[in-house]
Design brief:
Number of helices of chain A: 7
Radius of gyration of chain A: 18 Å
Helix content of chain A: 40-55%
Number of domains of chain A: 1
CATH topology of chain A: L-fuculose-1-phosphate Aldolase
Number of strands of chain A: 7
Largest sheet of chain A: 7 strands, antiparallel
Low-confidence stretches of chain A: none
CATH superfamily of chain A: Class II aldolase/adducin N-terminal domain
CATH architecture of chain A: 3-Layer(aba) Sandwich
Oligomer: homotetramer
Distance between the termini of chain A: 36 Å
Mean pLDDT of chain A: 95
Shape of chain A: globular
CATH class of chain A: Alpha Beta
Chain lengths: 237, 237, 237, 237
């Protein structure tokens, strides 16, 4: 693989996968990051079930957006078709992450959204992070991994959510997916998701009747960081 | 900035911000410490949204007590006006800290005070650490960060609390603020707050009907450390 | 002990015991791993109550499948007869682990199975991980450690479970046992068990009415990794 | 202090205090270990409120069993009179530890004993670890620290407990005390206490109606390690 763009993509995806492990979002082989080159419509993704300690950038598997493995002897992650489905439906994302990180998975298993209970959440996600319904038997039997992607996409449609402002979704009985402009930003979204999921769990245990924060406070925090008149952080020059 | 007093202030504030990260009270850029030079009425505070790894003492932003940025190209923390409001209302404090530390934030999101449930708490805070009401829509729209400070100040007035004996406050749906005689002491108060908030959460989950400890026990512990006849620690010479 | 097969077994068992400590599944001397040489019908197991820091491979105690200590001045783990009972009843296992790892023990103390609440679980264990009944007074008085093994075996019979697809069991009021093809795989099963037990505890606290996942989803995940048409991971050559 | 016995005592007590910090049973100055020389009736204890980083063995304060400071400019721990009370009432103990370790303190704040819910507990403590009543106003006003010791002693009398088989007690609204034959063994008891207190909290949250394990199982586990026919561990030669 001498193509410099794809080599760079593999390196980004490799680093992002390592970061999952370093940040303790995954143990063993629980999780995967992919990235896409939108000009070529090719993604790079972690191979399936290989220990992180034995991976190098060259091992990342290239797969075309329509699902063909390009020039690799390794199987891509078994979740590849879920990633592809998200890249097709969300045209501006550059990276996708799937983990079984502890508290996001706990909420997914409890079939509960990550309610927006405070400004820590509102700083990064514009409202409750949804949890899908449990996948149907039919979808499991048909094409499980692809249908998992469709389930996320349908949940976003049903709830009227914009993937640019809501960069994560819990899949019921399964775990979290997150995305961003790049593999690295998708990992960042996963890290924030895990932190707020942890706070969510214990806030709800302490006060089961707590509601999502009001719209005015959500808007204030989300928009001061991500709105067109954002004043958080430094001026972009 | 060749002024030695302000240089020293910046160094103190820088170190205190690093300590937040080392002690795991913050992840990423979640939190900020400021300090004040009371003779000059100038505070130093962390710049907004800059990674801790890229900060040096010189990057701390100087802001006058009435809110003017002094000699800096960086924006100060977006929470600066909250800090300033506290410095104006609490004339003897020398440092302010805001974090999203886990358990203090959990209680803030649950809209619950940190009840004084034991001597670990009573050794450092003279009674329940209050949680404000949720900020009003009007206050959010007017001047959100300044009004967050006013909300803390009003809560202290309403409850008859003295900021010298109660060095922290939870802001509902948001997170904790703490203060002290110096930036370093404000960080110390934040660390103790987080530890007792953790113990608070689980004590209340185990025994939801538990009450704050009785006044005699609170007085004994707080005053043996902080009262005029304190006998904890070593004689000050 | 100059026999190379038994020397190798001792080394495997020693390394697996160390791994328990490194992975924080045990503190102090809480736990033990054994392995078996099926040709010889000899197991190697950690000696009883000796600090991990003072152990070497040579200290692993060899015991025949019918319970005789072979050539050692050290007592084997007090749980040895439980291990032997499992090796006799489960003829294809090569390693057994007992720990008091936190969350698996918490569920065992609560007398609750580890419900299969998500795909993280379904990827490794084919359904709920059972919890035995509390051991009878008679069994305790008769031959406690051997009877603990029998209790696990009887539980598997009663529930119609196959030890090859369900590589762990909680003993009520006690803690977890796990097994695998080798000492190392038994440790791996213990690690996965602890992770999913942790997620189990908090999922159930958040949603006490949550049920085990449906059979179709369980089959999909377990069989894509462990079934005859498994497609997870890389082709075995 | 050239007396070799007392020098040795100071060293033991110093090391045991450091271990509290290393094992994360204490943060800052939360906690203290003492040891006694029974021939001299002199204890050594950590000085009050001094950072662990600034302590050396020579700083340990010697106090006679009737409470007189011997040859030191430093104040002993403010809890010294509690320690002395325990040494007087429990004539065979050699070390005492007080901490605010997380889960033991949580149970103390919840005014709950550490129920004996499993064999992890039964291996080290012979039954439920008691929690005292809340100390009376009169006792607080009279001689708070001494009366805290008396409260523990009275609780043991009331419940018919033997301090040799029950080496810890929770003080309601306060935290744990533990003891042993030496300062090091008292620290060990504190570590085990914290581990089982953690498991206790979550077991009770999951199954609030869970009862202490039955006497036959308690006897089996405690006595196989600590009874006269103990068979756990290695033969003492």
């Amino acid at each position: 693989m001498s193509d410099p763009d794809l080599k760079k993509l593999k390196e980004e995806v490799f680093k992002a996968n390592l970061k999952l492990l370093e940040e303790k979002l995954v143990i063993f082989t629980f999780g995967n990051v992919s990235g896409i080159n939108r000009k070529r419509n090719i993604i790079a993704i972690k191979p399936s079930g290989v220990d992180y300690s034995r991976l190098s950038p060259a091992d990342m598997v290239l797969v075309s957006l329509d699902g063909k493995i390009i020039d690799s002897d390794l199987n891509p992650s078994s979740d590849t078709r879920t990633h592809l489905q998200l890249y097709r439906a969300f045209p501006e994302i550059g990276g996708v992450v799937h983990t079984h990180s502890r508290y996001a998975t706990i909420l997914a298993q409890a079939c509960m959204p990550v309610r927006c209970l405070g400004t820590t959440h509102a700083d990064y996600f514009y409202g409750d992070i949804p949890c899908t319904d449990v996948i149907s038997d039919e979808a499991i039997r048909k094409d499980y991994e692809k249908e998992t992607g469709s389930l996320i996409i349908d949940t976003f449609k049903r709830l009227g959510l914009d993937y640019k402002f809501m960069k994560a979704c819990l899949v019921a009985s399964h775990g979290p997916f997150a995305w961003g402009n790049s593999p690295d930003e998708a990992v960042f979204a996963s890290l924030i998701l895990e932190e707020i999921a942890m706070q969510n769990c214990f806030t709800r245990l302490l006060n089961p009747s707590i509601k999502s924060i009001k719209a005015v406070l959500l808007d204030k925090h989300y928009l001061r960081k991500h709105g067109k008149d954002a004043y958080y952080g430094q001026k972009k020059s």
